[in-house]
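Q: Could you fold this chain for me?
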Amino acid sequence: MTRCCRRRRIGSRPKAYFYKPGGVPIHFLDIVVLKEDEMEALRLADDMGLYHEDAAKQMEVSRQTFGNIIRSARSKVASALLHGKAIEIECSGQYSEKNLDWQNQRIDTIDSKET
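A: Sure. Below is the predicted structure, expressed as C-alpha cells.
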C-alpha cells in the first residue's frame, strides 16, 4: 500500500495555467498535466538555477524526491514540445485566498531563517 503524498512547499504561482501550440484548436490536442510541485521544481532548478539539494530544501522534500519530481516535469514538457501537445498546470487550490496568507507567512519565516 502506498502512502499519501506529502504537501510540498510551493513558492510562487504560475502566471498562466494553460499553454498550447498556436493555430491548433484545443479540441484537436492531447493535454499533458503538469502538477504544481513539478512546476515549482522547474522554476527552482531551471529558472533560478539552484542545485537539486538546495531546491529540495526550498520545497521541503528529500533530494531524491526532488530528482524524481524534476525528471517527471522535464519529461512531460519535452513530450508536449516535441509532439505538439497542450500543457495544463494543475491547480490544487493551495493558492486560495484563505491559504495564501498562511503560505506567505510560512515563506517569510523560512526565508528569514536562511539569511
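A (continued): The longest strand covers residues 31-34.
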